[in-house]
Structures are given as structure tokens and as C-alpha cells.
Amino acid sequence: MIWGGAGGKYVNSRDVARLAIRGSAALAAQTVLSRVAAALGLVVAARLVGPKEMAVWAIVSGMGSVGWTVADLGMAASLVRERAEPELLAFRQAGGLQVAVVLLLIAGVLAGWGAFASWFSWAPEMPSLILAVLAGMVLRGVATPTRARLERHLEFTSLALVQAVSSIAQSLILVLGLLMNAGVWAFAMSSVAADGVALIITRVVGGSRFLLPTFGIGALRPHLSFGLALQFHNIGHLARESLTPLVLTQVLGPEIAGLWAWIRKTLEVLYSFLSIGWRVTFPTYARLGSHAEWRKASSTILEVAYWPLLLVTVALLGSAPWALDAVFGAQWRDAHLGLYIALIALVHSGPVSVALAGGVLADGGAAKLAALQFLRTLTVWTVALWTGPHWGVTGVAIGWSCQLMEDALGLLFFARRWRPSLIAYTKGMISGAVASTIAILLRAGHATAAHSVVAAGVAALVVVMLNLNSVRGVARLARTLMFGGLGSTAVR
């Protein structure tokens, strides 16, 4: 039996799996809703602003993500990982620690205002934008104790509601701000609005379980070791994800940085679905008792995770460039090849990461993943800055793809004691290559919408027909989700 959720109940591994599946379904529904809203915001932004403003958006988002990662210190995740239920004071102190660090970051920005203004002379509003985003993070820290408890107890339906409402609010404020000529300030306004709305909804869904943060670290001392190791992992991740736009802007110029920002924002639709797996698998693995159960779970996760990526990839390769021009406009055509390269790398590495990263982390491998993160960051910067002056944004995409493959290979090595068979996954990828080739040949020499739609449809059909066994497996999983129910010992 395995430690369960609120109230100290115990659940077995089957119930944990079902809770994880239902949580994934709730987050998937939330992701669809949120991504539709975000996609509309991206389309509006792409048509109303240019590469320079996109670069500002990417840098502000990146700096905000770095600030939040620094403030987190890995404490919330450490509380989620623990087998025994942590005391409530630990959750409250985790939130208080985040609020304290964010306030220190705000003080740092104010103290270094002149240096920031000089560094971002091409975008003089940048320090004010960063300060506004950091101010919104104080609200996020207030919600941390309750959010961490919900995640620990696999209550992802409530978390999905919080994220759905806040992301819709963010996209709405972004669009309204751009239409009202707020310019780059619309980006900061939307971020602060999202944090505020998230806090309100967290208070509503938390009810009597809502916890306010408090200052102190006494109850967090047993969790510091894992938390700090995870912190280095997260910093390595954010250094790559969030500082890359800044590095590209300073070395290769705002134009290339803006083109890469468009690619990265376009890929966010797929990353959002992958993030469901990354978020759910970590607490799920932490509650499964043996490596045999991990192997079974990772096999199912791998099979399910690659399907959305594979179908979207072959459909896009079949319909491009018409589909991209129709949605985003022709001004981003110089970035199309880079998008294809990054997308192909993501479809190969993303499912492996979703299936294995949570288990490696739950197994105490935070330090290993931290080392891998810094290697990946060094790789993307080295390759991008070496090839960027010659190949532009395509060189950046090549560097990004190299680090994605490093991630997959590193995880396969770290999880070698319990990793699943890769036969079905490899077959799916081969079928994707075949289908993409067929689609490209079908639309060769034709730029009409009809040819693009037909090519995309044929490519998707070929993938499904070559992977019928996997399709049936996903269908069985869906039936389990819809009709299997929860065992009598499941957490309520």
C-alpha cells in the first residue's frame, strides 16, 4: 500500500495510476482551453507587433521565469516527493520563503535600475516591465502552500481549474492591451493579471484547506538537500529556456532573437501537452513503490505521450508553408525551416522526457538532472552562437535540437534499471518519417490550401494505419479513464 492524499489515507498502485490518469485528463482539457486562448493571443500579437517586440516579450517572460525559479528553491517539489505527509507548517513556510525571495529580487532590480536601463538601451521600458512581472509573483507565492498540497494529493482537477481561468485571463488582458495600443506593456499586464486571478481561484478551490504563507525555515530543514539539488536543475533549465533570448539578442541581434521567439512561442502549444506529463509523473512515481511498477507506468506514458506530437508534426509538415502563412502571416517565413527542425527534434525527445524524467527525479536523481541541464544549456548556446552568424535562426534551431537529443539520451541512461522497451516508440517515429515524406511529395509544386489540407490528412492517416496496435492501446486507456472508476480506497 502507498501513502495517499488528504486525511492520511492509503491507496494502492492501481488507484494511484487512476488518479494520475484522471488528473492528466483534467490537465489536458485545461491545456486545450488555455492553449486556444494563448494561440489567439499569439496570433494577435504576431500581427500587431514585430520581431523586436517579440524579443522583448521573450526576455520579460524569461527573466520572470528565472526569478520564480530562484524564489522556489525546490521546497514545494520536495514536499510533494515525501512519502510521509509533511506538517502544514512546512507548506506555509515554503510559500513564505518564496515571497521573501521575490521581495529581495524586487529590491535588487530597484537598486540596479541604472545598470538595467543601460543594458537594455534598445528597449528602455525593460526594467519597468521586469519589475511589474516580479510584483505579480508575490501573489503567486501566497498561493504556493495550497497549490503544493493539492499537487501532493494528486488533486489535479482543482489545479486545472486554477490554470484554465488564469490563462484565459492572461490571454484576454494581452489582446485587450495590444488592441488599446499598450505595446509591450500588454505583456507585463497580462502576466500580473494571471497571477492575481490564480490566487483568487486557488482560494476558492482550497476552501478550508487554504493556507497562508509564513516566514521561517524550521519545518523545511529536512527538505533542504533535495530541494537545493532540484533548484540547480531548475536553474539550468531556466538558463536555457529564459536566458537564450537575451543571449541571442546581445550576440546575434534582435531580428534573429525575434524569429527564434516566434518559433519558441509556436512550439509552446506542444510543450503545454508535454508539461502535463512532466507535472503528473513526478508525484505519481513518488507514490509507486517498485521499479517494476515504474517500468510499466513509463511504458504506458511513452506510448501515450508521442501520439499528439507525432500527429501534429506530420500534419504541419504536410500543410506547411501554407498553414503557417495563413495563421501567422508571411513575415515569419524566414523561420519556417528552423521550426521544422526544432519540431522534429521535439517529437523524438519529448515523449522520452515525459516518460522518464519524473521517475529519475522521484528516485533522488535531481543532481544528475541538474548536471544534464547545464550540459544542454552549454550545447544550445555553443551551437547557436557558432552557426547563427552563418545560418541565422536555423542555426539556433539546430543547437536547440542537439540539446533535446542530449536530454533523451541522458534520461535513458539514468533510468536504465527500469526504462521501458522502445520498440513501439521507434516504430511510431519511423512511420512518422514515412508519412511526412509522403505528405511533402503530395504537396510538392502545389501551394494551394486544398493540396496542403489533403497532404496533412493523408500523412495523419498513414501514421494511424501504421500504428493500429498503439491506437488500440490508447483507446483501452481512454475506456479505463471513462468507465473504470476509482477503487474504494482512492483519495476523495
Strand ordering within the main sheet? 1-2
Report the oligomer: single chain
Order of helices and strands: EEHHHHHHHHHHHHHHHHHH
- Kindly report the average pLDDT value: 80
What is the number of E strands?
2
Broad structural category: mainly alpha
Distance between the termini: 17 Å
Q: Which percent range describes the beta-strand content?
A: under 5%
Q: Count the helices. How many? A: 18
Helix content: over 70%
Shape: globular
Structure at a glance:
The chain is built from 18 helices and two strands. With 492 residues, the protein is an all-alpha fold. The chain has a two-stranded antiparallel ribbon.
What can you see in these coordinates?
It is built from 18 helices and two strands. The chain is mainly alpha-helical. It has one domain. The chain has a two-stranded antiparallel sheet. It starts with a strand and ends in a 9-residue tail after the last helix.
Task: Name the descriptors.
81% helix, 18 helices, mainly alpha, globular, 1% strand, disordered N terminus
Q: Which secondary structure elements does this structure contain, and how are they paired or packed?
A:
Blueprint: E1 2-3, E2 10-11, H1 13-48, H2 51-72, H3 75-81, H4 88-111, H5 113-119, H6 126-152, H7 156-179, H8 185-206, H9 224-252, H10 254-287, H11 291-319, H12 322-328, H13 336-362, H14 366-391, H15 393-414, H16 423-443, H17 449-466, H18 468-483
